[in-house]
Amino acid sequence: MFWLIGCFALVVPALGCGVPAIEPQISGFNKIVNGETAVSGSWPWQVSIQDTMFNHFCGGSLVNQYWVVTAAHCRVSKISHRVVLGEHDFEFNSEHIQRRIIAKIFTHPNYNPSTFNNDIALLKLSHPAQMTNRVSPVCLASSMAVIHPGTQCVTTGWGKTGQTSTPRYLQQTALPVISPDMCRSYWGYNRITDAMICAGAAGMSSCQGDSGGPLVCLRGGSWGLVGIVSWGSSSCDVHTPAVYTKVPHLRGWIDQTIGWN
């Protein structure tokens, strides 16, 4: 089995979590280096975290109308940062985006900024996101999830598409999950923990600016969040695996934090 789908849906479209109203079109499923522009609105849980000058610096994923999951290393601030939902084109001002103030931030208590272990943070929005055909939550992979090496998953974001290029449009790429042992052969045995999952090393990768964004896999018609963009090659080397925070490993903490707050 791949995973047991679950989601924290307080108010969601009839389709439920992980089912975009606008269907993604994925080449080869094909930086985000060596990826492609996504169909506008086809990844409705993707959020942009921006500063007060509307500059994007990290991604995130909507998991219910009040909560967004992102990376702890993004160092999100309630005072100077905002969550933007429904974004696709940073240069088009007529998109029906939703901008939300952040009410609370919960960083994993065992997050290690030196090793990026447990690199996860939860953001509680001050007002609920309005669910539309362009804004809806992703499912969360179960703590029982087993994501087999070779599984094709998708990562999305506005990170650099090369060492200097930041895209105007939301980018996507399909890339294979690789085994922990293979990942350790690239990064060293002690750097890859049970709270990490690796993907890529196949000609495409996530890059700076994608941090906090989703790695999602399709199962039974629904997309599930299995990873959060965490760290990787400083030069965005597409032949080196990117490392993602492993959502199944931290699902208990996610459930507890949302349930208590």
Can you give a write-up of this model?
The chain has two domains: 44-137 and 250-260, Trypsin-like serine proteases (Thrombin, subunit H); 139-248, Thrombin, subunit H. Helices cover 8% and strands 33% of the residues. The protein has two helices and 15 strands. The longest helix is centred in the C-terminal third of the chain and has 14 residues, at 247-260. It is globular.
Known CATH architecture of the largest domain: Beta Barrel
Distance between the termini: 32 Å
CATH topology of the largest domain: Thrombin, subunit H
- Mean pLDDT equals 86
Strand content: 25-35%
Q: Helix and strand string, N-terminal first?
A: EEEEEEEEEEEHEEEEH
The dominant shape is: globular
- Order of strands side by side in the largest beta sheet? 10-11-12-15-14-13
Count of DSSP H/I helices:
2
What's the number of structural domains? 2
Q: At the first level of CATH, what is the class of the largest domain?
A: Mainly Beta
Number of strands: 15
* Portion of residues within helices: under 10%
Low-confidence segments, ≥5 residues, pLDDT <50? 1-14
